[in-house]
Each structure stands twice: as structure tokens, then as C-alpha cells.
Amino acid sequence: MRTLIPESVATPYLEEDASRALLILANCVVVLVGIDFYLPQLLEHRNVFLWPVIFDSPLAAAWVTFSLLTLSGAGSIAAYRNSRVHVLLNTIAFVSVLKYGVWTLFTLNYFFTAYYPDPVSYFGSLFVHAVMALEAFLLPYYAKTTMWALGVALVWLLVGDVVDYGFGLYPHLRVEQLGVLPGVTAFLSFASVATAWYCLDTE
User: Fold this and answer.
1) Block means of pLDDT (10 residues each) for the chain, length 203 residues?
2) How many independent structural domains does the chain possess?
3) Is residue 2 part of a domain?
4) The whole model's pTM is what?
5) Is 114 contained in some domain?
6) Taking the CB of residue 161, how many other CB atoms lie within 10 A of it?
7) 176: containing domain
8) What does the DSSP assignment read for 86-140?
9) Is residue 70 within 8 Å of residue 86, measured between CB atoms?
């Protein structure tokens, strides 16, 4: 297990019900705000099967929320660590929240002149997505992964990349030219999975 978050910081959110409930609530708010941001784009594509590959960031926050919910109620952290379903859930949660947190930080600054004129939105998005990216590093305290789960997670991310940039379903941006963004997005898919392999205990 390797992580950027000290145990003294992580423990309250993972082992104390009240702190964990607040974190889950915060994630739920992020999901709702993210869906509201993506709503016009979702309504353009009424095929609901496309929606999971359109609203990337709120879905990433949802994966982490589901992961944290598995720590609540009856049972303990250890009770979930060896379940294949939860191994996959935790792996996808880690890679998704890390990738799309970092992706948004990069995008806001790569297109700085388009986004900074709205400083409240700019700094608000920076803060939320930085916290999202850091939140991934709570998972190594209780999550495991497997090569199979890492492979599925990589396919999931790359399918999203192909749909986004091959079919033009990437998030609505305030610019017309994407520049290096498609390449950076694909790089982040591989980098996020590599980070999951490095940070999570691998069976």
C-alpha cells in the first residue's frame, strides 16, 4: 500500500461513521452539481446508454461514493477486501476519480484564458477536482486490486476516451480547438491505472 494521505488524516473518514457520512454527502453534492453541468449535453444525446461515458467527473465521484458506502453498516473493511465485485468497484473508483480530477485541473489551466475570467467558477472547480484527485488516495487504506480489475479499468477509461474524442462527446468546453487535450486524456488513462497498480495492494 502506498498513498499520499497520512493515516492520521485518512482514519477519521474511513473508521468514524460521522466523518465518513460527511465525506459521502460531499461526494453526493459533487455528483448532483456535475450532473447539472452535463445536463444540456445529456439531453442532446437521449440514448441513456451513452450517458455513462459523457458525465465523467460526476460518475467518478459516484464510484468513490459507492466504494465508501461499502465501509458502512454491518461488517468491517476486511469483509469487503476480497470480494471480486468490490475489488473491481474500488479499482474503477480509484482510477476514475484520479483521472478526471487531474484532467479537469489540466484543462482549466491549459485553457486558462477561457476560464479564468469567471474566477468563482474557475477556483471552485480547481478546488473540487483537486480534492477529488486526492480522494483516490484514501482507497489504498482498504482497497485491493488485481491485474484483471486493472485491465477492466483501463478498458473502461479508454472506451470513454474513444467515445469522447472519436465521436465528439467530450465535455462542452469554452474553446473550439482541443490542442493536446486528446493525447493528454489518453495518457491520464494509462497513468491512472499505473498509479492504481502502484498504490493499491495487488493480489
Assistant:
1) 94 90 95 91 79 88 93 58 84 98 96 90 94 97 94 96 91 90 97 98 87
2) 1
3) no
4) 0.93
5) yes
6) 20
7) 7-202
8) HHHHHHHHHHHHHHHHHHHHHHHHHTHHHHTTSHHHHHHHHHHHHHHHHHGGGGG
9) yes
